[in-house]
Amino acid sequence: MTVSTQTTQRPRKPHWSLARTWLLQPGVPDGADLFDAAVAGGADAVVLDIEDGLPDSQKAAGRAAVAEWLGGGHAWVRINSVATAAWSADLDAVAAAPGLRGVMLAKVESGDDIAATAARLPAGTPLVALVESALGIEAVSEIARTPGCHRIAFGLGDFRRDTGMSGDPAVLAYPRARLVIASRAAQLPAPIDGPTLRDQSRHLARETEVAKAAGMTGRLCLDSGHAETINSLLSPSALDIDEARRTLARLDAPTGAYDGSVGPTRARAQAVLDLAEKLGLVQ
Questions:
Q1: For the chain, which domains are there?
Q2: What pTM did the predictor assign?
Q3: CA dist list (Å): 212 to 78, 215, 248, 254
Q4: CA 21, CA 206: separation in Å to the nearest integer?
Q5: What biological-process GO terms show up in the record (predicted)?
């Protein structure tokens, strides 16, 4: 494999299981042009948001606009939580839409939330569980193992509101670790971290590195301008790829001690190359 140097074509968007940027585009009434622009941008996945992306007064009209646009366009939709009356109305509007890529379910707090939502969707529709509370974190293993759950996302803002925790990475290491471990144990893709706020763009790179260090492979995104940085930092770099190749070559022709560290080291290096290939970074 060689590292791709193509710059004249927009990189292909990866499968949702590998998606790094999940752009939350408010599902505003009469928003078709905005939805088109979001999908044409650099985010791996676009989520039309008819939950917190809209004030209550616009939810009905926004829901209708999103459902109409999905007649020809393709995107994910974030719907309201099972505990709200809007949940059923959201599913009535979008579940059968031909352009529905998948559903992001807000404020998931039990496996029952997943089961009830999956039962209302066409078989095989991907469902991302957005965990946003202390109760959700405590139930995350159950949520991850419930049939119909395909990936987990961290609703960072609502989680901090619920718990009173600060945004300090050391403080949030525990809930992030719970999401990563539960995802791995349930054989789901690694989870999606919360977003960087629009007025905090100066922290985008640092916060993305925190997510990566925690074992998360995607981030929610509130600003399309953040997508390029997130995609870059959550992808293997050319240096990462070269180092992985050198590691495999060294382990294939050992000159020193061969011990119990070799297997994990080899697996990590191979995982870097596998991800690079799936993202179209090598050929």
A1: 16-234 (3.20.20.60), 238-279 (no CATH)
A2: 0.91
A3: 24, 5, 23, 30
A4: 16
A5: oxaloacetate metabolic process
Q: Is 132 annotated as a binding residue?
A: yes
Each residue of 54-112: pLDDT tens digit? 999 999 999 999 999 999 999 999 999 999 999 999 999 999 999 999 999 999 999 99
158 annotated ligand-binding residue: yes
* Collapsed DSSP state (helix, strand, coil) of residue 282: strand
- By the 8 A CB rule, do 131 and 108 touch? yes
The whole-angstrom separation of Cα 154 and Cα 141 is 14
CA distance linking residue 105 with residue 111, whole number of Å: 12
Q: How far apart are alpha carbons 121 and 81 in whole angstroms?
A: 15
Lowest mean pLDDT among 56-65, 227-236, 264-273: 264-273
